[in-house]
Amino acid sequence: MEKSDIDELVDVDAGEISPRIFIDDDIFERELERLFPRCWLFLAHDTMLPHVGDYMTTYMGTDPVVVARQKNGSIKAFLNFCRHRGMPVCRADSGNTHTFMCSYHGWSFNLAGDLVGVPRYKEGYRGELDKSKWGLIPVPRIESYKGLFFGCFDPDAPSLREYLGDMAWYLDGLVDRTPGGIEVLGPPIKWVFQGNWKFAAEQFAGDTYHLATTHNSMFAGFPWLSEQMEATKRSDFGRQFSSRLGHGALFTAGEPSPRSIFSNDPRLTEYFQDELQRAIAHLGRERVNLNQVHTVFPNFSYIIAAPFLRMWHPRGPNTFEAWSWPFVERSAPPEVKQSVKRSAQLMFNPTGLAEQDDAENWAEIGRVLAAGRLNRRARLNYQMGLGRGRADPVHPGTIHDTMTGDVPQLGFYRRWKEFLTSESWPHVPESELRITGSGVACSGRSAGEEVPQ
Amino acid sequence: MTTRAIPKEDGRDAALARLLLRAEIEDFYYAEASLLDERRYSDWLALFTEDTRYWIPTRQNRMQHQMQGETSGEEGTALADDDRWALELKVRQRESAKHWCENPCSRTRHLVTNVRIHRVASDEVEVKSSFLVYRNRAGDDVDLWAGERTDTLRRVAGSYRIARRYILLDQGVLLSKNLSVFF
Ligand code: FES
Ligand SMILES: [Fe+2]
Fold first, then answer.
1. Atom number in ligand 1 closest to CA A86
2. Which ligand lies nearest to the CA atom of residue A204 in the structure?
3. Number of domains observed in the structure of chain B
4. Which of A108, B73, B150, B156 fits a disulfide with B166 by CB distance 3.0 to 4.6 angstroms?
5. Which ligand 1 atom sits nearest the alpha carbon of residue A105?
6. What is the CATH number of the domain that holds A374?
7. Which residues span the domain enclosing A61?
């Protein structure tokens, strides 16, 4: 596949995209070679691995990895792949350990991934095996943004903070809303099904448009939500944010957003009124006003008010696995945590009022693309709001003055195309980074990779 | 091989009573299953008490010495943890005709088996049962879910109501695009 082929598949200026990017084996292989190994990928939040020896297994791209809390409090990750014959060394989803013992021939590795035990080392290898060469393959770079740990395999990638760029200002609404930060609840809800991972990633980067139709059936249960939904049809309601670095968001702006909790628990109303005041005092009214749905390029999403974190793990060109974690304010009282968790699950689990219908869309598109050939020759329309992004004195990035449009989605694919067509790490020239308004002040304030503990 | 003693009269009565109770509960389950398979969701909802809990915990792969984490508890996440209000929202959604993942409607079949009565109190019975649920929609789209339910059935006005349903679904990663079915 030539660069020109991919250029032809994604026409950002015309707002046209070929459905082949969602189904072709060649495209998927190229994502595995050029996108996932180069990007900063979300691994874990600090609170998912609270104790020394806590571990979890996850994916980077399609590669299984183990993430473990080290003795010194740091986080390390490695390919889940024994250097002897390739057996996965960790076959549980999570747990606590000091050693990963491979269950094939018994090589064992410590929390840092070093090879520390080899059965029949003296008799078999005559003591000549250099154990230091046969440790687990590490994720060479791990950095944290305010407790969110990301991993990257590419030495040429910029720092995580630079990679996030203008996104960090928005991301603070997730991880720095109140002083104590968030607690992520586990285990993650996981579901795997037909479809391409980008359907979900692009939707969370800005698709307000689908709410009225896809989720029509859930609004009946929530009159206040129907009102908000009607408002999203107004052309001046909310905004979209598109980052030159591929990230995207939709958000409402104007008044402090009620935390959109889908619960009949009156304790939450009181709690969130109080939480809102604390958030305004800590993060500032400007950003607390934003009620946001985000995708951090390429496959990490979240909804701050829902509230949950989401990973979209690719499992093939037409299969992906969604992982979802509810989160709560770390300092919230236990009964509030329970109630917030339940309401997130009620809406956004695969059993949920919203999520059931999202997956139907993605799986159905996957089904017709898998079956068809003529449909792959057609072009898909990404033209709503085309060319209407602008700089803004308050909000960093490119802003589209309504919530409904394709501005961040096109930004996502523009960046995606740069990764797939570039021979080296696709750095964006400084002159194209549009960090404006309070974004400048903020990026100064939140710069640097804070490592907890 | 030993020959079993013929049970005394009162022993036989107790055995018969157990048998009748189980038959009664099995009938309740078969009727419940057909409500779901016939898409009579409001009628199905009416089988639940006002204080009910419909709970599907999350399951993980864990090493044997740390099995306590295999099934999530009260503090952890759940695939579903619905009170009557939440269940009702899901039923209303189903009946709205705008719930696109169930319109066109799926075909389902709920098989209920291995019914075991665990505890009998004055007005409540705790029962375990196994299920296999089949769903077909959109041509060749097929899902199968196996699992176990632990129910608290409460006797209300001469019939049973589900006061608690705890569902162990036998999948770590859910192998379907959604769970638009009820168990
Ligand atoms: S494959 Fe791991 S010890 Fe042989
Ligand atoms: Fe949606």
1. 1
2. 2
3. 1
4. B150
5. 3
6. 3.90.380.10
7. 41-143
